[in-house]
Write a structure and sequence with these properties.
Helices cover about 35% and strands about 25% of the residues. It is an alpha/beta fold. It folds into 2 domains: about 120 residues, NAD(P)-binding Rossmann-like Domain (Rossmann fold); about 210 residues, Dihydrodipicolinate Reductase, domain 2 (2-Layer Sandwich), CATH 3.30.360.
Amino acid sequence: MVAKIGVIGTGWWATRAHLPAIVANPDAKLVAIADPIDEKRERAASVFEPSASYADHQEMLNNEELDGVVIAVPHTAHFDVAMDALAAGCHLMLEKPMVVESGHATTLLTESAQRDLEIVIGYPYHYNQQVLAVREWIANGEVGELLFVHSLFASIVWDLMRGNVDLVADAVGFTITPTGTDTYGDPALSGGGQAIVQITHSAALLLFMTGLKPIEVFAFMENRDLRVDLVDALTVRFEGGCIGTIGSTGSNVRTQEELLEYRIYGTEGHILFDLATSQVSLHRADGSIVENPVAPTTSSATMYSSAYPEDAPVNNLIDVILGRDENRSPPELGAEVVRFLDAAYKSARTGQCEPVPNE
């Protein structure tokens, strides 16, 4: 049996990460692609050779027998396209952020559960073996009760948000098709800036590793010359009394390395984790230090050694369809991040600490 996959959206990330992963997987078949932009669709079709190509995603869903659909469209279109694909009976790999509105996230959770369909959220960091090791350390109580957590993400997306996509072509790796000039900078398409584009990664990973549940957030956000936020500083209170900070900027100079780091402090020790350099260490109360662990293996989970295994979410979708792995980037986490970012954007507008809804 092979998993029959369709792809909706053939822009930068689909042609760099998702489509290559599908055609490279011997247990998958690229049945069809869909994109309303002729040039992008035709470029993707010429390189990846799907069996069919459509300008309209609904026509593809109506005409093709698909087990799963990869959705890589602008953020604000995620909800409508995902609902269409679920109605067609397809499991999904839905790019991050899951959606940009909390209500839409709740609706997708309900719809997928009622139809017994999985939604894998496009968070490649969650498949990194060091991430899985850190997650196990925390779950096993290696650092005790969590007291303070910190995340910093510095990326090179300022020019993307300005629409100067040619300036960052080499740095971000446009392989087949560049991103659109308005994809990240127009809030009607992106739904927001650095928080939507990057904190969705760093916050999701923090929650994934620690199991913490945010209950309130205070946020400062600055746009600079953009229509969306470029620099964000968030202070968070979690269930159980742990507090933390999540900072992110898209202003990293494009000739410099990006940074994603975590500092996790508990009653029995702390963890230092730099994903950019793949350096991670556990510092115990007795003075012992464990460095650069390898995650425990399971019978079903594929192990990824790269910091950002961009093919992992699609491969996870294929494995879920074939019944040989669980969803390792589930929609419940995606929805929690959407609610958290909703509250953060509200805080930045009101100047007040805002609660994070439970659902």
